[in-house]
Every structure is written in structure tokens, then in C-alpha cells.
Amino acid sequence: MNDIKKNVLDLQVSSVERLHERYVLIKLTQTERLPLMMPGQFVEVRIDGNGQTFLRRPISINKVDRERNELWLLVAVVGEGTRWLASLKAGDSLNVVVPLGHGFTLQGLSSDEVLLVGGGVGVAPLLFQGDMLKSLGVKPVFLLGARTAKDLLMLDEFRLYGEVFVTTEDGSEGERGFVTQHSVLYQRRFSMIQTCGPTPMMKAVARFAYSQGVECEVSLENLMACGLGACLCCVEKTTEGNLCVCQDGPVFNIKRLLWQL
Length: 261
What we know:
Strand content: 25-35%
Order of helices and strands: EEEEEHEEHEHEEHEHEEEHE
Distance between the termini: 28 Å
Structural class: alpha/beta
Largest sheet: 7 strands, mixed
Helix content: 10-25%
Radius of gyration: 18 Å
Shape: globular
């Protein structure tokens, strides 16, 4: 998908919604039609609110609402840069480079169920993927994990596109435990598993998929400073040598990674 034109745009903030003490949903638009973007790709946003914050921040594309001509970004508020993003107001401008990277597989998937597994802010790209899969006639199943019920994000949005199953570590919603312990994994057969979230979670999902002979794609969250493959901050060891996650990923089939499964 690197043949898709990269754009540097000043987008207008439509709204900023506080979903949780640590997460905000930012919706962006412009007068012209937004460029083509695919699930699993990301944007690099410029942080203008602090003279000491020089690097752009990589943010997964949460959804593209074509009817409203809106780009959605789900932002985890963890540091100075993301705190500035959370402080934006409707009408403000945000400079973004979009779209970047390779996304999840969409074409060639059978009508058999595709399982989308997410944890934390890693659920972000799975909403867009679910939307696109449904539009192609492939019914997604979502398996979302969090520490507690209040940490689960955008469940009503996910339910628009497929069945939603939940795990929480404290058992406050759904099944108690981690996503890889959920009963749906052992009650159904999936043709593809696609996942994004903390690396230990993705490795556990990858091990499960490998053990079952199921195709699996993971969206890596290596530190990506430039988003263009120039700074080499995000290099990942693969079967093809060292690759930049920002250019050759962030989505990889687990067969390409040197993970011990």
C-alpha cells in the first residue's frame, strides 16, 4: 500500500470526545474529500503546543467516516504530546501526514469468520477493519480485552459491524482473564486472526493461531519517529532481514516475524 499517495494536510478538528481518563477520540475533516486510507495504516501528527516536542506522533487510523468526510483518531494520553492532542477543541487545526504504512489484508478473505483481537488502544485500527470487512461481505468477530469494564472502549461502535466478545482481568465484564483464554477461541474455527495491542498479548494470540494452523496478522507498535523509513527507529528482525515497521508494516503476517511461537 506504499503506492498510495502520502499527503501532508492541515485538518480541522470536528470534535474531541473524552472516552476515558486516558483516552480521547478526535474527529478531523477538511473541505476537500479525504484521501484514500486503509485499515491498519496510520498517520503522523505534528505537535504544535510545546517547543520541546519536536517529533511527530504516530496514531492508528480508527475509522474513516466517508459520509461525514471524517478521519477518527483514538489517542491514548500518555505524555506531553498526547496531552496536547487531548486539549484540542473543535475548530482547531491539526497537521497530519496520511496515510502511512501497510494495513491488514482485506482482499481474498473467505466469508468464513475473521477474528479481530484487540487490547488497550490497540483496538483502534480494528474498528476500521471491521467496517471494511462488513462492506465486503465478510463478517468479523471482535474479541476485546481490558483490565476492567471501564477500560473497554467503543463497544457500541464495534457492535455495528459484528459480534463482540470481551475479557476483563478482574471479571467485571465478559469472561475473566486474558483474550487468549476466551471460550470463543475454542468454540469456533476462524479463517484469519488479525490483532493489535500490547506485544505480549499479540505474541500470545500469534502462538494460539500458529498452534491451530490459522493465518494471523499482527500490527506492531515499534517506536516510529519519522513514519517514512528514514530514522530506522522502528526496525524489526524478520525472515527477510531487518525491516522498518513504519514502511514495511506496521501489519505483518506472523510467518514473516522471528517470534518464538
